[in-house]
Design a protein that fits this description.
It is built from 13 helices and 15 strands. It is α+β, with helices and mostly antiparallel strands. The longest helix has 20 residues. The protein is globular. The structure holds thymidine-5'-triphosphate and magnesium ion. The site of thymidine-5'-triphosphate has 18 residues, from strand 1, helix 1, strand 3 and helix 12.
């Protein structure tokens, strides 16, 4: 039997806002946010916990946030400061394990299974890390300790902000039995309401549902759902590597019947991609835009074109060309970017990447699947 793993998930609290509060303590007890200006259709990147009481959250339009809280102090980004703090976080994490996966600018997984530090206790390591982050960087960090990544991430949210929670070996099933399904990574609002219509509210409910029923309703996601609902997650912590591409994709609960419907969904997927790019911890250079379209018969096409920046119109053009090839209802839309050499070193997220083998080498808009 393989020995149980000791995984720590660390996530700084209201990261960008915390850095601003650190540098100007007068902001600490007032609602404040970091984001774009309301006049220029800006969005909130994050806000402090004071502002969250008004219902403000990341990705909300700044204009709407100002309506919810007219006293909100809205600050512009200081990316250089945030990136420096992210580097400092990483250096602290690396003092406790060589196996550190920076998952976003303020979030990391550490595998401390083999560590002899802090008497070999992952909980004591997490406690020490939290203390050091407070003293050396001047912000708070929440941490979760568990036997795998899935549970460690949930544990870090459990006592947020400024919290530490450990799910001990043997406690996994008890912990997740009553856990709401929204905690499962990959279960967004659409899947959640679909689950609720089926009477599935908790991980325990999913666990007790036959796999065949889950497959019927959730397709290829079903086996993973079943595993997670049993507290099983075999994903290793992957030390950082060079990122060559980044993409997001979405499988629709109902196939999109027309090109018009696909184009209507494009803006939403585009925003998701923008948000993921905003989380990269290192500077990057875009070299290509790519789309993936999967049809109701599971055939798929990818299209790409050279570009230096995100552009929704170009994505729409690529989608139009991809859809016109098959002229079938669409079940999945993906958008991605290829990142240029040498500037894209960043964290090893578990994003689905388009296989470069699928993509045509032709520089201008081209089809990979003739
Ligand atoms: P998160 O860790 O998701 O959020 P947070 O640290 O602000 O708050 P929490 O206490 O809940 O962890 O993201 C880290 C930073 O990434 C966040 O401070 C700002 C940035 N970010 C965006 O720019 N846009 C987004 O949509 C999200 C979610 C985050
Ligand atoms: Mg955070």
């Amino acid at each position: 039997m393989t020995p149980l793993k000791k995984i720590i998930h660390c996530d700084a609290d209201c990261f960008f806002a915390a850095i601003e509060m650190r540098d100007d303590p007068s902001l600490a007890n007032v609602p404040m946010a970091v984001g774009g200006r309301p006049g220029s259709r800006g969005v909130i990147s994050t806000c402090n916990y004071e502002a969250r009481r008004y219902g403000i959250h990341s990705a909300m339009a700044s204009g709407q946030a100002m309506k919810l809280c007219p006293n909100l102090i809205l600050l512009p980004h200081n990316m250089d400061k945030y990136k420096l703090a992210s580097q400092q976080l990483k250096q602290i994490f690396l003092d406790y394990s060589d196996c550190v996966e920076m998952f976003s600018i303020d979030e990391a997984y550490l595998d401390v299974t083999d560590s002899q530090l802090c008497q070999g206790s992952a909980t004591l390591i997490a406690r020490e890390i939290r203390q050091r982050v407070k003293e050396e960087i001047g912000i708070t960090l929440s941490a979760g300790v568990a036997t795998n990544k899935f549970l460690a991430k949930i544990a870090s949210e459990w006592r947020k902000p400024d919290g530490l929670y450990t799910i001990r070996p043997g406690q996994e099933l008890g912990f997740i039995a009553s856990l709401p399904v929204k905690y499962i990574q990959g279960v967004g609002k659409v899947t959640q309401s679909k689950m609720e219509r089926l009477g599935l509210y908790t991980c325990g409910d999913i666990r007790h549902t036959p796999t065949a029923t889950l497959i019927e309703h959730f397709g290829s996601f079903a086996p993973r759902l079943k595993q997670l609902s049993e507290g099983i997650d075999d994903r290793p912590v992957k030390p950082n590597r060079i990122r060559k591409s980044l993409s997001v994709e979405h499988t629709f609960s109902q196939d999109l019947p027309t090109l018009r419907a696909c184009l209507d969904e494009a803006g939403w997927t585009f925003e998701k991609l923008e948000a993921r790019l905003a989380q990269l911890t290192k500077p990057y250079r875009i070299s290509k835009l790519q789309v993936k379209v999967k049809f109701d018969d599971f055939s798929q096409t990818t299209m790409e074109t050279g570009a230096r920046a995100l552009n929704l119109d170009i994505y729409k053009l690529l989608i139009s060309q991809a859809v016109s090839r098959h002229k079938r209802p669409v079940r999945l839309l993906g958008m991605g970017v290829q990142l240029g050499p040498n500037q894209c070193e960043t964290m090893a997220e578990q994003l689905e990447l388009f296989s470069t083998a699928e993509l045509s080498a032709t520089p201008m808009v081209s089809s990979a699947f003739k």
